[in-house]
């Protein structure tokens, strides 16, 4: 990893000098791929997938996964180290909407931020494999404990049945799923099999491009959203909405997250249902 902090206004990222976090236009973190039964589980450790907002501390500023600034209170960022941290801003299970509202506001709500934890799981500045990066994180946190920062615990995977037993346990307690991190690679930016997500269902972001009116009990309300995926597929999403959401549906052009269970032979998500509106990060 080619990383060097130059001061309060510039740093080197992958060989390029960046003078402000606002100029980043590509993902600055490792992104997760979907689980494939062909992977060798002995090459990975697992941890709970936290349903929050991905956050990257670059040594002086807190950023979203795409490099946009997060407006956190000074007391939240002041105790963070001079080296980078990769993690998730999180409150608790089933609290994503509260996290999103707090983290993506331009004016930080001090009281709301008091409920947030920075759950860190990696540090790109250590030019080594994941267990050694995690050990460095744990050493730093032990020597310089911060109340609102926690290091995410990881465990080895004995077998695929153990993996799915853990998944069922997490989901039954209100969790979202499991993350797998590859042990023998250095930190890499972008999507690869270094980081894999395992869920009961799959998630996908789509864009709202139209509406279909409801019928019967839903007369006068939203029946379905007409949406488009990033690869141009168009389909309806008609379940998962509350009556209030059907009265006031997501606006045209907005991004929403849907859950589904696999895809058809045409690539259309099976049993697609609305999860939540996704504000830009």
Automatic annotation (TrEMBL):
One GO molecular-function entry: ATP binding
Coiled coil: none
Signal peptide as annotated in the record: none
Protein's organism: Vibrio agarilyticus
InterPro entries for this protein: DNA_ligase_ATP-dep_cent (IPR012310), DNA_ligase_OB (IPR029319), NA-bd_OB-fold (IPR012340), NAD_dep_DNA_ligaseB (IPR050326)
Protein name: DNA ligase
Catalyzed reactions: ATP + (deoxyribonucleotide)n-3'-hydroxyl + 5'-phospho-(deoxyribonucleotide)m = (deoxyribonucleotide)n+m + AMP + diphosphate
Domain ATP-dependent DNA ligase family profile: 115-231
The keyword Magnesium is annotated on this UniProt entry: no
